Amino acid sequence: MHGVFLDTLTMKPEELDTSALESTLDHWDFFETTAPAETAQRIADADVVLTNKVVLDRQLIENARKLKLICICATGTNNIDLRAAEEKGIAVKNVAGYTGSSLSQHTIALLLALATRWHQYNADVKRGRWSQSPVFCRLDYPVMELAGKKLGVIGYGDLGQKVALLAEALGMKVLIAESFTGEKKPGRMPLAELLSEADAISLHCPLTEQTDKLVDADFLAALKPGSFLINTARGGLVDEPALADALRSGHLGGAALDVLSQEPPPADHPLLADDIPNLVITPHNAWISRESRQRLLDGVVDNIREWKKR
Fold first, then answer.
1. Per-residue pLDDT tens over the stretch 107-130
2. Which has fewest Cβ within 10 Å: 79, 169, 242, 248?
3. Helices 100-116 & 290-308, crossing angle to 10 degrees?
4. Which architecture does CATH list for 100-281?
């Protein structure tokens, strides 16, 4: 059987143990990246296709005459036409739960950056401002103690729960938003109430029609003045121009994002302007610890092996 991995560059496989994956099929072709114009030819004779972000639409799936299994090297399945795959009897497997430790520590690191403003103080030290200080320290940016503050968690699956646990270790009280499904669970609170009480909000919900641009101008206006927003979920959850406005106005105390609506972002992206205060952006790398990537690859191997047993 023939397998194709379309975008290995997203995994940096030279840092991982790939021997188990290579042993699952008779032959593998590995490509660092695959442009849309290259996809059809590369999957034409494949029995198994691995993709992280490469899109497999209906036409590609229908024309891949030998294709039997699509393995997504991620949790999200939005880059696959699932209905087309189902109609052709092609199995689609994703991997869940591999990034919890990596993403939760990154989320808390972003929260700590907003609270301590260490990134801005560090930049000032490198620019020589500490050397120019008339006293032993600098107090240019306000610092917030997180102990005793409230963290609002929107999306309380595995990732939200891990973030909540770390926040509690910092002495924070965790507020959990009601599910978007409408299911009532104890300990949850209405979103409007949560927004008015939380000192920081952390997003961990999926991107759906219901949550698309959830964080819009009204959402931001409902937040406590000076509060923080952290998004390590999906860029599409945030109305990005509205976020830029809320930061510039000072109503929002800070925001830290690991995801944007377009990745990589264009140079003129509204959140890449240099006049937005206390905004931290990391390049979608909350998940990239070596341990996390190895768990992901091992999950793909498990999916292939389980499929072969059918």
1. 999 999 999 999 999 999 999 999
2. 169
3. 150
4. 3-Layer(aba) Sandwich (3.40)
